[in-house]
Specification:
CATH superfamily: Bira Bifunctional Protein, Domain 2
Organism: Levilactobacillus paucivorans
CATH topology: BirA Bifunctional Protein, domain 2
Distance between the termini: 18 Å
Structural class: alpha+beta
Number of strands: 11
EC number: 6.3.1.1
Helix content: 25-40%
Number of domains: 1
GO molecular function: aspartate-ammonia ligase activity; ATP binding; catalytic activity, acting on a protein; transferase activity
CATH architecture: 2-Layer Sandwich
Radius of gyration: 20 Å
Strand content: 15-25%
Protein name: Aspartate--ammonia ligase
Order of helices and strands: HEEEEHEEHEHHEEEHHEHH
CATH class: Alpha Beta
Largest sheet: 8 strands, mixed
Number of helices: 9
Catalytic activity: L-aspartate + NH4(+) + ATP = L-asparagine + AMP + diphosphate + H(+)
Amino acid sequence: MHLIIPESYEPKLSVKETQKAIRYIRETFQDEFGDQLNLSRLSAPMFVDKATGLNDNLNGVEKPVSFTMADMGDAQIEIVHSLAKWKRVALKRYGFDLHEGLYTNMNAIRKDEDLDNYHSAYVDQWDWEKVITREERTLDTLKQTVRTIFKVIKHMEHEVWYKFPQAVHHLPDEIHFITTQELEDRYPKFTPKERENAITKELGCVFLMKIGGELKSGKRHDGRAPDYDDWELNGDILFWYEPLNQAMEISSMGIRVDADSLRKQLKLADAEDRLTLPYHQMVLNEEVPFTIGGGIGQSRLCMLLLGKAHVGEVQASLWPQEMIDKCEAANIHLL
């Protein structure tokens, strides 16, 4: 358990007022976000059949919550870690056209998560996916989409200010772009987390690109599943978060793998056995569209916009009693 206690923390909203603000942010953001990216809302599963290969493997070490169902025989059912792969299949299944997309409320359980101010075992995010062409699988497409998402987040800051002026946390006016290799070159003696903190403190907000592959040092900046993002065309949106004096990740996103990048990344990850799974076969045979997509943390966004010290102030989850007691003593009221 890792916990940061801000000095002299005073929440600007009561628990009841915070609940009103959460509802306003969630409802307003998803409508504007959907409009700006031409996305339609879809319902999505909370669990999938392991045999489909649709679940997100994250860093490859986290184990999903799993169970069996009375009418499903011996099928192993898994609570999703995210909907990164499911969305791409859904775009094909529901007949989405070029430059159309979907978003959904994704709820997941990540039981192996290390709990802290940002991380909970309960994950709630807007998962989204959009159809693009093969020719649009470029950094320009990725950056343009990132700028649109940043613009919507900035607009939400102004919207929240109108409703809750005493509570809004002000954000930088610009997002900057840097690769993981450029970051390692810039801070060669820092850990990946220290690099993220240093660059976001300097620039305010960055999109950190090309996550998953090895750097010149032979190490990875961070882990990424090898079978949804193209590691050359992905990244994280990071804000410098003054209340906790560190970076906050709001979104992980990227252009999705094609057949070539899927084969390459599965080989690097020593996971070529996945190539026989139904989802992976669809990618190899180009039976699913080329897409860009990602996730935007709902509780993280509420936390960011309201200047909260702990994600537990904006979502109901389970926490160690020691964390609950320390937070309560510091005026941090966990739901």
